[in-house]
Amino acid sequence: MPSWSVLPRRALAAFAAAALALLALLAVDAAPAEAVRPPGIPSTATAQSELNQLTVAAESHGSTYDRDLFPHWKSVSGTGSCTARQYILKRDGQNVVTSDGCQPTSGNWQSDFDNTWTTTVSNATIDHVVALSEAWASGAWAWTTAERQAFANDINSPQLWIATTSANSSKSDYDPAEWMPTNSSVRCDYVKAWTHVKYLYDLTVDSAEKSAIQSHLTAYCGSGGGTPTNCNGSNTTAGTITEGGTISRAIALSCTGSASSTSSVTVSITHPYYGDIQVQLRAPDGTVRTIQASSSSTGNFGSRTYSVNLSSEARSGTWTLLVTDTYSGGSTGTFNNWSLSI
Questions:
Q1: CA atoms of 212 and 205, how far apart (whole Å)
Q2: For the chain, percent of residues with pLDDT exceeding 90
Q3: Residues in the chain, pLDDT under 70
Q4: CA 175 to CA 194: how far, in whole Å?
Q5: pTM score over 0.85
Q6: Domain residue limits, the chain
Q7: By the 8 A CB rule, do 218 and 310 touch?
Q8: 263, 308 Cβ separation under 8 angstroms
């Protein structure tokens, strides 16, 4: 094992397991089916526990920081000749094509910070979630060069994220008290990742930083940093769906933060021609999304579950399901119930 791969403190215990996971991933060597966030993002409860254990201290030694003290984008053991940057672009991108030297030449990458997709390799930068200068001022000034190199090239923790050039520049070396992603749906995972990296490497937090992290855990991950509550609901009021008519059923939710990009809607309807039925979801802000369009398909509607990206919406408010029988002269149906999990 090269000398730079020596990991500080708590990271040592996790390295062996991470290496096995890495070998398994390389064996599959398949592009992800959808956007991928870095590995190792902890549960909210774990992040809360880790935050509680972090040492609060003022930042120091900032004037002596030099980026060259963190040798980065070096070849990573177990990836052939790939640098950490090349490896992350291949692992977390879609349909990535690489040259013989591991350098991606084409692909599709999502910048979660600003919810932007790019097909331009040069626009898919790699961001250190805990910036190198932030790490330096939080304790890395006392590390060896090998430890700093391991930190800068850590592909196994949630330290390295794909970000567009503009998102990376906007984030700069700010901590969560100074900057948060514009994409609100990633903010919970972002602060959990930040907390975990600081915990993993025994880095300190200053008082404003810790206060902001706690506030963000509460706002975006649930009250008191726990699992979001009251973010599931149902409406079981049955009704007849007339030919060419629309019925609506509402669910009122009261909870913090933004809805998930993988929210789910389950609808139960009795109707012999499910293609006659159009299903729409109206958000609390009035935005209407069609989650099933009408078609010529036949067969009973039954119970169907839809995955819906609601990340641009706040959870709290009244959500309304609109069910329309788009065909006149066919058959009537019965709305049974629907449920929403966001």
A1: 11
A2: 57
A3: 1-35, 222-230, 256, 330
A4: 9
A5: no
A6: 3-225, 232-341
A7: no
A8: yes
